[in-house]
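Newbie here. two chains, one complex. Structure please?
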Amino acid sequence: METGDKFTWPGGARAAVSLSFDDARPSQADTCLKILDFYGIKATFYLSPGRMKERVGEWRKAVAGGHEMGNHTVSHPCTGNFEWSRNNSLESFTLEQMEAELAEASRLIRDALGVEPGTFAYPCGHTFVGRGDATRSYVPLVARRFLAGRAYMAEFLNNPEVCDLAQLGSAPLDGLPSMEVIPRIQEARESGSWAIFTGHDVADKGFQVTRSATVEKVCEWLRDPASGVWTGTVAEVAAYVSSSRNVSGSPR
Amino acid sequence: MNRIKRSHPFLFVGGVCVLVLAVAVARTCRKSVPAPSRTGTEKAGRFSWPSGIRAAVSITFDHSTGSQLDKGVPILDAHGIKATFYPDIPEMRKRLADWRRVMARGHEIGNHSLNHPCSGGFRFERKRGGKYSLENATVEWVEKDIMEANSELKSMLGTEPGTFSYPCGETFAGTGARSRSYVPVVAKHFLVGRGFGLDFSNNPADCDLAKVNALAADGYSFARFKAAIDGAIAGGYWVIFCGHSVGEKGGSYPAIEPAELEKVCSWLETHRREVWTGTVLEVGEYISRERRNLAERRGN
């Protein structure tokens, strides 16, 4: 174990894993939830409120089934380098606008599903607003409002002793066969880390598509007690990490 | 700041010595890179690349590993490709004479900080005991670290770097409600700040030069380079590649194989009239000047 002697995962687990899916894409409700429920794996869904409406009934059932519904803003602003975000770019955003986005997305999810989002996923994994010398981090807004903030495309695994819960790293799940996902979980097990994965659509193949077969094989692998891994939603694992820190004294 | 001055995006005019200048100009002229002259057909009010150019490419390498010198630079030079190197200063010091020669041939050497502070999520950061981890850092400390690197590089190479690459592509200092972006520091001291590992190319009309993205090109095949260049041509973008080593593993990163680098450099040389390959500073300066010109024309 690379983590210190003080930190232990629950039930003797040697690592934690969270699966997360962004944007409330209908294929998540139609395909992904069925696979997860078959294997008894709870995941986190970062909902775009507009697309959430396409499957409200399914999302309500998912809440009842123990999955987590998180906040992903209302309008999904990203860098204007993405053609589709050019008219809603973070470079032209303000912290006040972002605060309003966070509040409104939580309200829409609460009204539709009766649940308060406890964690957040940064659209495109970006954590800034503004440009040049006026660039500001919006991590503090997320830290004040949510237990955890999940970024994207990180090279590193989250170390439970030192990670910033407001800026957790996650690895892409889209397009990968299970044989490229499971080694990352094994790496987390070697180092006692928390591996978070992020997918989008769940289907056979395509752009921003996590393969159904990958979700199946990863769930099957995680479900096996011999895996030595605790699989929980982002909120569950973040709550555990947070409470462990409070008990053992802040690691920093 | 004391940035290298260039009156033309392709000509090196503020160099280290006259001989170097002459060599650089001679090479540049021999390669006959298209000049950024405007044709009458171009629409005023829209960003445009130099005449005939549809996209820009910058090839960058971080950490100044020996394989970049031994296997990468000869390939770049054989095709007249100018690249940008963001050094690990102790590593660069080991072969300083070689790196000076690389710079004299027209390649750019930028700033990659002194102590390479990254998230404590990285094992190498934890092995240093969290002393340099960004979670424990302040923006003021990061600025001091970057400026110390500037002084070191100036004493080693004779000029201060004009562009910066964010260690690990990360831009923050501190955690939670006290987390801050250090992009403003980079914007203050450099023309361009280059990120790492996100999945987009840069829109020259509007991108924030203080946080442009570089694709993580470690282990790239020619096909992957080419797909990214094709995407840049389709959108009129600036695609930046970042690698760490050539032909041998560099730290935790897979190498770019020499044969693949050779193919992409050869392609770029052949297509230099449609795709402009320049250093980060050269492309950044062109973009910056073109935007100023556009703003003036809009003002008229």
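Moderator note: Residues 280-299 of chain B form the longest helix (20 residues). The interface with chain A takes residues 119-123, 126, 130, 133, 135-136, 168, 171-172, 175-181, 183-184, 187-188, 197-203, 206-211, 213, 235, 237 of chain B (CB under 8 Å). Thread marked as resolved.
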